[in-house]
Task: inverse folding
């Protein structure tokens, strides 16, 4: 269980970056306006979502980002280097289904393209974003870098099988960021890297799979965002490299 909050975000100064601005990403940017009022909020995604959203996005900047394009990642880092240091980075982008991509129920449904698509976004992108923004992190102040994972990425918790590409890509993401946390523990000891399971949230990613979820376990994006920030606020550099659920419980690898 995560201990009581130790991060006094209300006094933090710098920049907060949310990568991927779907339902949870947008909700996080809204919540951060209250939780960390002195952090400049930046959302990075493929398209500028603000014009179609019902929220008031005053004070939130947008940076274009194509996660599978190295040049786009490099431009993200270049843009962020002109801003105050990054104190909080939350990677929310992920893919579960889409054109030619569906969770597999059996081995015969696995295909190379689906595996490559899932790994490119769910596994490789969080690490490559961290690489792109590393020079924007402070050298003398605490910071958090978090990425949304999923309980189905836990090898120890896998009791049902199926969903080959998504499970494996999330497990790979966990390993990559765990490895990053160990490196930064030596080079950036004030940093905290974490993997977060948000629970089933009413977003486009989970939409085809919500029918069997009890209403009490289907979270709104706003509730998910608030729960995730509460978990992050309770983490310190000593917790770096952990895998945490929305309720603060540690998840087995």
Result:
């Amino acid at each position: 269980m995560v201990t009581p909050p130790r991060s006094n975000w209300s006094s933090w100064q710098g920049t907060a970056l949310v990568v991927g601005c779907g339902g949870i990403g947008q909700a996080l940017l809204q919540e951060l306006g209250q939780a960390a009022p002195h952090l400049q909020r930046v959302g990075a995604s493929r398209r500028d979502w603000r014009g179609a959203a019902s929220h008031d996005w005053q004070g939130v900047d947008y940076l274009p980002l194509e996660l599978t394009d190295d040049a786009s990642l490099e431009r993200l880092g270049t843009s962020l280097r002109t801003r105050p240091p990054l104190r909080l980075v939350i990677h929310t982008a992920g893919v579960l289904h889409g054109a030619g991509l569906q969770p597999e129920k059996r081995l015969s449904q696995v295909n190379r393209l689906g595996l490559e698509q899932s790994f490119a976004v769910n596994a490789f992108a969080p690490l490559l974003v961290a690489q792109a923004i590393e020079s924007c992190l402070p050298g003398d102040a605490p910071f958090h870098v978090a990425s949304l994972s999923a309980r189905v990425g836990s090898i120890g918790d896998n009791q049902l099988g199926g969903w080959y590409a998504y499970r494996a890509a999330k497990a790979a993401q966990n390993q990559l960021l765990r490895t990053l946390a160990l490196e930064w523990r030596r080079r950036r000891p004030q940093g905290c890297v974490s993997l977060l399971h948000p629970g089933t949230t009413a977003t486009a990613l989970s939409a085809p799979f919500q029918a069997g979820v009890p209403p009490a376990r289907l979270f709104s994006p706003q509730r998910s965002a608030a729960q995730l920030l509460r978990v992050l606020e309770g983490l310190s550099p000593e917790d770096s490299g952990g895998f945490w659920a929305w309720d603060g419980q540690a998840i087995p690898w």
Summary: Strands lie at 14-19, 39-45, 60-64, 86-91, 143-148, 191-197, 242-245. Residues 192 and 236 are 6 Å apart (CA to CA). Residues 1-5 have pLDDT under 50 and may be disordered.
